[in-house]
Amino acid sequence: QKEVEQNSGPLSVPEGAIASLNCTYSDRGSQSFFWYRQYSGKSPELIMFIYSNGDKEDGRFTAQLNKASQYVSLLIRDSQPSDSATYLCAVNTGFQKLVFGTGTRLLVSP
Amino acid sequence: DVKVTQSSRYLVKRTGEKVFLECVQDMDHENMFWYRQDPGLGLRLIYFSYDVKMKEKGDIPEGYSVSREKKERFSLILESASTNQTSMYLCASSLGALNSPLHFGNGTRLTVT
């Protein structure tokens, strides 16, 4: 069983819509959760991280964490074509080791 | 801004060659990591290091070794390259604090023929 699961997509949304990206994890002891964006041919770049249950907002991005359900999500408001990329969910399983999901490809159409 | 620099963007090597991938970070980070990324498999941890001269195996260490002689530099070594090691290799670093995020280098696309 994979430790971090993401739907591979692609998730297609029109420009201006809300994109919702989801991630589930298996290790109940996980303490911190990260979202990275990766453009084709580039390395992952950190978007945001969340440690506590609830929502965390940063500009157009909102991360949501539900530890009881072992579920973390990323909402992108007012999606732009430049948001088209693969979004990687990563979970800290201890000792600062991150386990990554395989990513969800997001396509935002003009 | 944290800068993680990988020495080569593209590399082509022959089967059986010894290959060195170099990574340098400029933010005095304690932790350094080597991942490989393959389509459909995502990022998989090869080796990591918490401190100079320390190393720990990740999930897929077979066929690889590492060296960390200085805090800022972490090298990945393929002792005898094989075609199944053709991949994108990503170096990353992070602070030693709990829950610190990873900062990635630009990656090295290695092809073994």
What can be said about this structure in brief?
With 110 residues, chain A is mainly β. Chain A has no helices and eleven strands. Chain A has strands at 4-5, 11-14, 19-25, 32-38, 45-50, 54-58, 61-66, 71-76, 85-92, 98-100, 104-109.
| Overall geometry of chain B | globular
Give the N-to-C terminal Cα separation of chain B.
36 Å
Q: Which structural class fits the helix and strand makeup of chain B?
A: mainly beta
Strand content of chain B: over 45%
Low-confidence stretches of chain A: none
The H/E string of chain A reads EEEEEEEEEEE
Largest sheet of chain B: 7 strands, mixed
Q: Considering DSSP H and I runs of 4 or more, what fraction of the residues of chain B is helical?
A: under 10%
SS elements, strand count of chain A: 11
Oligomer: heterodimer
Helix run count of chain A: 0
Please outline the major beta sheet of chain A: 6 strands, mixed
Q: How much β-strand is present in the residues of chain A? A: over 45%
Radius of gyration of chain B: 13 Å
Distance between the termini of chain A: 37 Å
Mean pLDDT of chain A: 93
The number of E-state strands of chain B comes to 11
Order of helices and strands of chain B: EEEEEEEEEEE
